[in-house]
Each structure stands twice: as structure tokens, then as C-alpha cells.
């Protein structure tokens, strides 16, 4: 049977996308008749060009993009999520022996990577507001490459560094002068990484393909949740997927994500969605929170839940 082409464009290559990589490697999409392929443009906002010119069927990235574009530039419809929590970590220096709380960030300098979009700053500043800290009382250095900022932080710049958890843990593993102050996967639900496409291009045939994609992705999520990352076969896959990070670090972060709700289902929970909308409003990306049904069509994901369908 010929596979239906299902090209995906993504804003990056990240550990929080792991269930999709597993679904691809294990043939879960192929068994459902979908030929899923992935491209990652540089710069990342080329994903919108790929949707516009038809070279991609869907985009994987932050929900803040379709939120801020809605009724301004282009309307997009979100149909699934892969990451249910923020994959970030906050680093500080080991010379700081105080018990950490977010209130300690007030009046300090925070380095934040921003190469993959605005999510890092958006989430961290929302988290500060939720904990009663005015983000305007913090100094930020965030318009530089993440590797450059990491080197500068280790060299003495700033007080804290926000980056992805995998990079943070790899840094801690090789540098005893820095430590994890907070893993943000523990800080509640948000639809961190979602799939979407232009609203006007959605047809019954598209919805059917999205449904089958969600079935395959759900199988990938379930596989990850059912297997400890330290198992030999899983560990070997992680080593192939992330060859530039020490495998013990990848295994540890994967298991932290498994335990702390990074991956749940392909459906976007309303509570996390509404929380993130408030964060986007307070960051002035949107004027008011967008109603769930105004941005999300949960039908493909809902149809996939509990479905054990194969090709």
C-alpha cells in the first residue's frame, strides 16, 4: 500500500519531541498509511513559509505563534500536542548555598537562550509573575545564541541561566561550578509543543490524516511512558537520537520527563491551555486569552484516544 505523504516542518530537534521520533523509528505512522517526513528550517520561522507554500502538511512548534498570528496575519488551527510541560531548567552557581526560590531572582541578571523563538522568555517571565515576582525587576540577556550564552554564563556572566533541561544537565555533568536550581518540567501543565496548520486548508481528508497521525503519536507517547529509559534497547535508541550528549544525561532527563508529565496524551488539556493564554496576554502577544475552541480542534486527538488501530 502506498503511503500518504505527510511532511512535517518543525522549529527544532528536541528531547521533548521524543515520542514522535519513537513513532517514526518504530513504524507507528507507517502502519497507519502515513509517510511522515520531517524538515527543520533555518531560521526556525521558515516553518510558516513551508505551510504557506504547501511543502509541509503541518508544523510542530510553540502555540504562542498561532495565538499571536490569529486575526492579525493568518489563522492556524492546532490539532494536537506532544509536550505537555516546559522542558527548561534554571541554572545557578554552586557558590550560592542559599535555599533556592524564585524570589531570589529579583534584582539579578538572567541569561536566556532565544534561538528557537520566544518560548523561553515567555514561560520564565510568566513563572515569575505566578510567584509574585515582577519580571520588570530582573535584568535579561537573551538575544544571543544558546551555546554562546552557556559559555558566557560558565565564564562568569550573569547570575542565572535558563536553557533546555538536556543542555543544562550536560553542563552540570562537566562543570562542578554550576547546578540546577529548578527543573521547569515540575512547574505545571502548558501545551509547550503543538501541531498546527492553516485553518482555511483543513478538509475532511486532512482531518482523517490528522486523526491517523494522532493515533501513531499516541502510540509513541505510550511506548515512552511504558519503558524506562535505562533499558538497553531504549538507551541504545537515545544514544542514536542524541549522540552529542552523554548517554547517562539523556537517560536521566528522559526519565525525569516521564515521571513529571512531559508526555501525557495528544489532546491539549484546557487548564494548561488557559494558563498559557494568560501568560501570552500578560506578555502582550495577544490582547485577551483566546477561547479553547477558537484555536484548538481536538477532534483528531479525541478520536485517537484509546484507539489501537493499525494500518
TrEMBL record:
InterPro entries reported in the protein's UniProt record: NMT1/THI5, SsuA/THI5
Domain SsuA/THI5-like residue range list: 14-227
UniProt keyword Metal-binding present: yes
Associated pathway: Cofactor biosynthesis; thiamine diphosphate biosynthesis
Cofactor(s) demanded: Fe cation
Matching Pfam families: NMT1
Family statement drawn from the similarity comment of this UniProt entry: Belongs to the NMT1/THI5 family.
Protein function: Responsible for the formation of the pyrimidine heterocycle in the thiamine biosynthesis pathway. Catalyzes the formation of hydroxymethylpyrimidine phosphate (HMP-P) from histidine and pyridoxal phosphate (PLP). The protein uses PLP and the active site histidine to form HMP-P, generating an inactive enzyme. The enzyme can only undergo a single turnover, which suggests it is a suicide enzyme.
Subunit field text: Homodimer.
Stated name of the protein: 4-amino-5-hydroxymethyl-2-methylpyrimidine phosphate synthase
Record organism: Aspergillus lucknowensis
Amino acid at each position: 500500500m502506498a503511503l500518504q505523504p505527510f511532511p512535517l516542518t518543525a522549529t527544532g530537534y528536541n528531547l521533548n519531541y521524543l515520542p514522535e521520533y519513537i513513532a517514526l523509528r518504530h513504524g507507528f505512522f507507517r502502519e497507519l498509511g502515513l509517510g511522515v517526513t520531517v524538515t527543520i528550517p533555518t531560521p526556525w520561522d521558515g516553518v510558516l513559509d513551508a505551510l504557506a507554500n504547501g511543502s509541509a502538511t503541518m508544523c510542530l512548534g510553540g502555540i504562542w505563534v498561532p495565538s499571536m498570528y490569529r486575526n492579525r496575519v493568518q489563522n492556524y488551527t492546532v490539532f494536537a500536542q506532544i509536550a505537555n510541560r516546559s522542558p527548561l531548567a534554571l541554572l545557578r552557581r554552586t557558590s550560592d548555598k542559599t535555599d533556592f526560590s524564585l524570589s531570589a531572582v529579583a534584582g539579578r541578571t538572567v541569561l536566556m537562550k532565544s534561538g528557537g523563538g520566544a518560548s523561553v522568555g515567555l514561560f520564565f517571565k510568566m513563572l515569575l509573575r505566578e510567584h509574585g515576582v515582577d519580571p520588570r525587576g530582573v535584568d535579561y540577556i537573551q538575544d544571543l545564541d544558546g551555546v554562546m550564552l552557556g559559555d558566557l554564563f560558565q565564564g562568569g556572566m550573569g547570575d542565572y541561566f535558563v536553557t533546555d533541561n538536556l543542555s543544562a544537565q550536560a553542563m552540570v555533568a562537566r562543570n562542578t561550578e554550576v547546578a540546577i536550581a529548578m527543573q521547569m518540567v515540575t512547574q505545571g501543565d502548558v501545551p509547550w509543543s503543538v501541531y498546527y496548520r492553516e485553518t482555511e486548508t483543513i478538509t475532511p481528508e486532512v482531518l482523517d490524516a490528522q486523526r491517523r497521525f494522532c493515533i501513531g503519536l499516541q502510540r509513541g507517547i505510550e511506548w515512552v511512558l511504558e519503558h524506562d529509559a535505562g533499558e538497553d534497547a531504549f538507551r541504545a535508541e537515545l544514544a542514536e537520537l542524541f549522540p552529542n550528549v552523554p548517554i547517562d544525561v539523556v537517560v536521566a532527563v528522559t526519565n525525569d520527563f516521564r515521571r513529571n508529565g512531559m508526555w501525557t496524551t495528544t489532546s491539549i488539556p484546557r487548564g494548561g491551555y488557559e494558563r498559557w493564554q494568560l501568560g501570552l496576554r500578560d506578555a502582550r502577544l495577544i490582547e485577551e486569552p483566546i477561547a479553547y475552541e477558537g484555536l484548538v480542534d481536538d477532534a483528531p486527538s479525541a478520536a485517537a484516544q484509546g484507539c489501537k488501530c493499525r494500518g
